[in-house]
Amino acid sequence: MSLALPPLALYVHVPWCVRKCPYCDFNSHGVGSRASLPEEAYLAALIADLDADLPLAAGRDLVSIFIGGGTPSLMSADFYRRLLEAVSARLPLADDIEITLEANPGTVERGRFAGYRDAGINRLSIGIQSFQDAQLSALGRIHSGDDARSAVAEAREAGFDNLNLDLMHGLPEQTPALALDDLEQALALSPEHLSWYQLTLEPNTEFHSHPPVLPEEEALWNIQELGHERLEAAGFARYEISAYALSGRRARHNLNYWRFGDYLGIGAGAHGKLSAPDGDGLHIERRWKTRQPEAYLRRHQDPRGFVAGREPIAPDELPLEFAMNALRLVEGVPLTAWSANTGRPLGRLRTSLEAARKKGLLVEEGERLQASPQGLLFLNELLALIDEKG
User: Is the pTM of this model over 0.90?
Assistant: First the structure.
């Protein structure tokens, strides 16, 4: 059975931020101010990084571009104009391509969003996290609730009609009332998409070393249940564990991840997943770039290139890899996608599905691989069943 290449996206990592937040485990590095950003050197490195990866695109159109960080809104609009011009000169873009930029309300001054829109960015993801100034201070954020509201207004004035707002819940000493108030304030701004996720204490972060006082388990359950109900009442459909969207506004880039699509990753510490024909199947490889920004910039002149490591996904690892992504989607995926993405016959999966259904972790109806609401909450347990027998 010959497997077709999946859709292709591009992830661009900008590793700098004004100040690293105590909960953040991303590859981000505090820089203090824009004046010290090596824009020209980083742009040249990104383009060289992309050039080295071009053979991996295999002639496919880019379905989406996502610029994450760090704080990408530290970079100028001209930086993104030239970057996107370089990308479009090298790779075909889908006619309806989604191009997303992550932005921090504390790093956006008047007029900058308009420049981003003119550069070709058509979707913004604004990292608000909370509208409560006390909560923002506890999270180490550099913006206020008023800054967040001003940023959304500025984005609308610039012509953006596709906005995601990032919100966190389960914050230090947060009550259900405060969490629901954050949702109400977000809904009042009429976004098209909301990412609403619980704060977790990740290793190698300040919060992990010095944990803050977080809400008790009962309060966390109340927040989640009441929040889900409120978002659904406002017309937002939950389509992934922590993602909600109005009709037609689901994030295409993230959908490509969860559907096990391919993506090039350029920039310091960026990760990619690429497929290539291999007999009747696909050779699938994960690769990652040099993590430290200074070392990444030096790699521009290094014959070794930007790749810091690569790891093929072995055939017996494919079922778990695919399920880890696909089962995050509320709608799941057709069972036919199982064989198409893993090369495994459905018969080997049936035993796992039946065991998961008996535990209430899978939806009973239809020929779909689809987690139940309980399965979404206990995804690791569901994945363990599939890993064991799939």
Answer: yes
